[in-house]
Amino acid sequence: MHNLLYLARVTSIAASKTAIANSRISSISRQFSSSPSAMAPITKECDYLVIGGGSGGLASARRASGYYGAKTIAVESKRLGGTCVNVGCVPKKIFWNAATIAETIHQAKAYGFSVNQTAPFDWTYFKNKRDAYIKRLNGIYEKNLGNDKVEYIHGRAHLTGKNEVEVVLDDGTKQTIKAKKILLATGGHPTIPQNIPGSEYGVNSDGFFDIEKQPKKVALVGAGYIAVEFAGVFNALGTETHLFIRHDKFLRTFDPMVQDAIVKEYERVGIHIHKNSSQSKVEKDPKTGKLTIHYKDATGEGKLENVDDLIWAIGRSPEVEDLGLEKAGVKQSQIGQIIADEYQNTNVENIYSLGDVVGKIELTPVAIAAGRKLSDRLFGPEKFKDSKLDYDNVPSVVFAHPEVGSIGITEPQAVEKYGKDNIKVYNTSFTAMYYAMMEPEDKGPTRYKLICEGPNEKVVGLHILGLGSAEMLQGFGVAIKMGATKADFDSCVAIHPTSAEELVTLK
């Protein structure tokens, strides 16, 4: 009997507790469903929010978090690594390597090798292997963020205020991030002309890396380093290559010596250069998929038929669409670039910007250096309070065929800055020893120029074209950055036999 009464009591208490619990759950459920903020975006807070997962943004984020312990969040809407890793420097250099090997196979006969190519270059195999390498790099970049305790969010970020950003995630949901400091490092994207009928049949410079099979005939439009590098690669791999340029030279920001020599060399190796050209229409054959390009150039009007691929490499624009700059009051230039000073400050306090989106010097190592120095200044010790990147004497290379290297100012710029009577220019032109065993028609050019200023002949410009120029320039770049003079160059004993020795024996 007692057991029955005890059981009844326990059952009653349990039922009562269950009823109370259900009542509370029901109440909470009603509160949640009726609350206007129930479905509001998740809100996060951080010390440093980096918008853009390219080289500059990642370098700055990792420095801020890994070195200084700042709570850092990085947001990227595409693939980590930005332009350089995915559709720029890295896959481009791999392609350039393949083209260089093709040239070496051709040149091997002069050295006594009987090299017979049993099959054409396997473009598809190469592309798949290159793409796999890039994918591994994407993973390494994400792993490095984790190692430095940077929170990584994949989504599209929009400024909603001076210290607040809304991120739209891949699944369409939204997050709000409140940040003490914000870095805009969104980079840029290639441009396709809008006023040429049929321009959509071509691809931009990013699309070059998506081409699935090697074209027999290709057309490139552009005169910058991207167009010149791609043209050299295609030609070396055996594709009939047409390069359309607006003027009579390309690489027009480089020294005239470089322009003249590289144009002449590209013509010598068989690249079809359409000078002073413009395109009026692009047509696509619905059956074959081949393109016809209608154009005007220095020789008159014409059309290029049976083109497999057309690549527009006519420039890049800042990636600022839907970034919400106007909501935070961030100023832009006439062409949309974010305006930032030498410390990477925008006009809005605690909002900074660097890399291609500001357009000062659009090179990966520049963005990385600027990003690290910015984080040193913002989060580092007192000794870094004035930390900033020096944008003078930045070396740059064009992986053309042959390579081009440049640091400092060009001869015309030196004349304008210092006056013709205050500069002295040293030139040399020779055939590199590598070509000694080859026939005249197979020998590539080597051209060097040293521009000096004042009575002490301080080196203010160095321009080189020829084999090994990229690796060579890095060392000479250190010397020039340190303020080297012609006498310093002369005092260095030459390494013989090399091409580089010509730079320390100039007369």
Automatic annotation (TrEMBL):
It comes from the Eukaryota. Disulfide bonds join 84-89. The keyword NAD applies. Its cofactor is FAD. The keyword RNA-binding does not apply. FAD binds at residues 93, 356. Gene3D superfamilies: 3.30.390.30, FAD/NAD(P)-binding domain. InterPro entries: FAD/NAD-bd_sf (IPR036188), FAD/NAD-binding_dom (IPR023753), FAD/NAD-linked_Rdtase_dimer_sf (IPR016156), Glutathione_Rdtase_euk/bac (IPR006322), GSHR/TRXR-like (IPR046952), Pyr_nuc-diS_OxRdtase (IPR001100), Pyr_nucl-diS_OxRdtase_dimer (IPR004099), Pyr_OxRdtase_I_AS (IPR012999). Keywords: Cytoplasm, Disulfide bond, FAD, Flavoprotein, Mitochondrion, NAD, NADP, Nucleotide-binding, Oxidoreductase, Redox-active center. It is an enzyme of class 1 (oxidoreductase). It is found in: Cytoplasm; Mitochondrion. Residues 394-505 form the Pyridine nucleotide-disulphide oxidoreductase dimerisation domain. Signal peptide: none annotated. It catalyses: 2 glutathione + NADP(+) = glutathione disulfide + NADPH + H(+). Binds 1 FAD per subunit. Its EC number is 1.8.1.7. GO terms for molecular function: flavin adenine dinucleotide binding; glutathione-disulfide reductase (NADPH) activity; NADP binding. Residues 47-371 form the FAD/NAD(P)-binding domain. SUPFAM superfamilies: FAD/NAD(P)-binding domain (SSF51905), FAD/NAD-linked reductases, dimerisation (C-terminal) domain (SSF55424). One of its GO terms (cellular component) is mitochondrion. Pfam families: Pyr_redox_2, Pyr_redox_dim. NAD(+) binds at residues 222-229, 315. Belongs to the class-I pyridine nucleotide-disulfide oxidoreductase family. This is Glutathione reductase. The lineage of its organism: Eukaryota, Fungi, Dikarya, Ascomycota, Pezizomycotina.
